[in-house]
């Protein structure tokens, strides 16, 4: 690790991987454990402290035991860039991939497992590709590949999704398949950006292995010479209207649209579930990722209400009331995000709810009732907050939240957010959930945004010498 060239390309690869994952999954960090040759100590490359808090597990795996130091019997026969995978270290909240190679003896890559991740598969394929790139870089001397790996890893999202689908279909169907995944994904993203009379696409389009089409029954089939070819995105977009808001599915063999079916789909089927401006990519029943504006993302597009759940656990409410409030809040927040309108929910934890300035109801609505919950969801569109008690009843709507100026206000966040900060600062037993019209969700209690995230410090512009694991553990 004393070579400046090697330190530089490792630093560039780490930065490129972090940038790519941040676009795919939101702000992300990356870390690496690396020993370039047998007998070398394990170095820690963790510029953004991703591994902090995992020291006991790392010490147990890589200091107390020497299993990782034992060369694999097939190591000498490996081609440059090939990896023999090592067991996942199992660090909580982290995804990891690593192994041994002929040019880089041992490496283990880490990144965050975001709570809204559809599937860890594409991210793991991304880490696997990073390991392969590092193995190739270390096998080549000179500066030929100095920044190549960084650029490759930064723009690997599309390929990571494809690699994961190919791997899973190989497990299910075997390697001899006819459906080409790259053109399929190109068509899915192309159709997602194609509007028909101003409307975004809705409905399901399934890509079935051609050899399995004979197992399906079709409501409507098209003669081969008249099937819309997949290259004609606008024509395929028109046909998608036949399955909008219906249990029917448009069927393709990867080259053209072959028909419409309500039948169960065979294994290994790639499904695009269009839901307007966004959609989801599935392989059989597994949601792999979402897509929007022609780009794949790892998010499942559900609001992250973990902080609200934790606040309820500390509130002293009964378990039944906590579960009811989670269900009620999740329903209203999800509806507001889908319809892209802002709303505010003020959850009152007091035994006797306070009086808030707003539209009062003669009889509180029990939101455990589905009809009442749907009504409350509609009332959330009206300016002002919904006042919900700890027992799950709606007491007021269109409520005004006010208070004195507090630290942490941000004019860039709008009136809802700042009013909630002021109000909760003066009322400790209130939790306010603010949904912005552009989909971010903020959970505020005691004048503090519980969902706030610290900005990660950027990577330094130089490649510092990484510490040995034992020195890093001692701090």
Question: What does this 3D model show about the protein?
Answer:
With 475 residues, the chain is of the alpha+beta class. It has 3 domains: 4-155, Beta-Lactamase (2-Layer Sandwich), CATH 3.30.450; 177-297; 306-449, DNA integrity scanning protein, DisA, N-terminal domain (YojJ-like (1), CATH 3.40.1700.10. The chain is built from 12 helices and 20 strands. The protein has helices at 4-25, 55-62, 121-139, 148-154, 157-173, 181-192, 233-240, 306-313, 319-339, 370-379, 414-426, 469-474, and strands spanning 30-35, 43-45, 84-85, 94-100, 106-112, 202-207, 220-221, 249-252, 257-261, 270-275, 278-283, 286-292, 295-297, 343-348, 359-366, 385-389, 393-399, 430-435, 441-445, 448-449. The chain has an 8-stranded mixed beta sheet with strand order 7-9-8-6-10-11-12-13. A hairpin with a 2-residue loop joins strand 12 and strand 13. Helix 1 (4-25) runs parallel beside helix 4. The longest helix has 22 residues, at 4-25.
Averaging pLDDT over every residue, what do you get? 89
Please tell me the CATH architecture of the largest domain by its name: 2-Layer Sandwich
* Beta-strand content: 15-25%
Number of domains: 3
The total count of strands amounts to 20
Shape descriptor reads: flat
Ends apart, CA distance between termini: 20 Å
Structural class: alpha+beta
Largest sheet: 8 strands, mixed
CATH class of the largest domain: Alpha Beta
Individual helix count: 12
Unreliable runs: none
Sequence of strands across the biggest β-sheet:
7-9-8-6-10-11-12-13
């Amino acid at each position: 690790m004393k070579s400046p060239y090697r330190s530089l390309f490792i630093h560039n690869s780490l930065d490129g991987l972090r940038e790519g994952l941040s676009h795919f999954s939101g702000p992300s960090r990356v870390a690496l454990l690396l020993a370039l040759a047998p007998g070398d100590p394990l170095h820690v490359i963790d510029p953004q402290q991703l591994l902090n808090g995992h020291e006991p597990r790392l010490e147990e795996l890589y200091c107390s035991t020497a299993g990782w130091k034992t060369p694999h019997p097939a190591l000498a026969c490996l081609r440059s860039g090939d990896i023999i995978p090592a067991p996942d270290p199992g660090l909580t909240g982290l995804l990891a991939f690593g192994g041994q190679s002929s040019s880089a003896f041992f490496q283990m890559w880490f990144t965050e497992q975001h709570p809204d991740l559809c599937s860890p598969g594409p991210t793991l394929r991304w880490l696997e590709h990073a390991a392969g790139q590092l193995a190739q870089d270390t096998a080549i001397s000179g500066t030929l590949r100095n920044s190549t790996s960084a650029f490759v890893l930064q723009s690997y999202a599309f390929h990571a999704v494809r690699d994961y689908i190919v791997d899973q279909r190989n497990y299910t169907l075997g390697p001899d398949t006819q459906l080409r995944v790259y053109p399929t994904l190109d068509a899915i993203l192309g159709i997602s950006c194609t509007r028909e009379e101003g409307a975004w696409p809705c409905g399901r389009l399934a890509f079935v292995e051609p050899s399995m089409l004979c197992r399906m029954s079709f409501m409507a089939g098209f003669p081969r010479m008249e099937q819309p070819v997949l290259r004609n995105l606008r024509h395929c977009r028109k046909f998608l209207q036949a399955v909008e808001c219906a249990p029917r599915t448009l069927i393709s063999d990867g080259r053209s649209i072959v028909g419409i079916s309500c039948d169960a789909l065979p294994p290994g089927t790639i499904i695009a579930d269009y839901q307007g401006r966004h959609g989801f990519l599935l392989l059989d029943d597994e949601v792999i990722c979402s897509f929007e504006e022609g780009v794949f993302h790892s998010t499942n597009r559900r609001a992250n209400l973990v902080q609200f759940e934790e606040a309820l656990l500390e509130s002293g409410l009964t378990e039944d009331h906590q579960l009811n409030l989670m269900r009620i809040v999740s329903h209203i927040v999800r509806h507001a995000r889908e319809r892209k309108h802002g709303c505010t929910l003020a959850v009152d934890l007091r035994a006797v709810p306070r009086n808030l300035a707003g539209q009062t109801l003669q009889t509180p609505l029990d939101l455990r009732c589905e009809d009442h919950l749907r009504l409350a969801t509609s009332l959330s569109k009206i300016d002002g907050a919904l006042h919900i008690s700890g027992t799950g009843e709606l007491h007021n709507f269109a409520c005004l939240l006010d208070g004195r100026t507090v630290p942490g206000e941000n004019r860039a966040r709008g009136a809802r957010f700042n009013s909630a900060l002021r109000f909760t600062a003066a009322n400790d037993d209130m939790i306010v959930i603010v949904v912005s019209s552009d989909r971010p969700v903020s959970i505020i209690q005691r004048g503090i945004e519980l969902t706030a995230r610290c900005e990660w410090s950027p990577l330094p512009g130089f490649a510092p010498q990484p510490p040995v694991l034992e020195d890093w553990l001692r701090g």
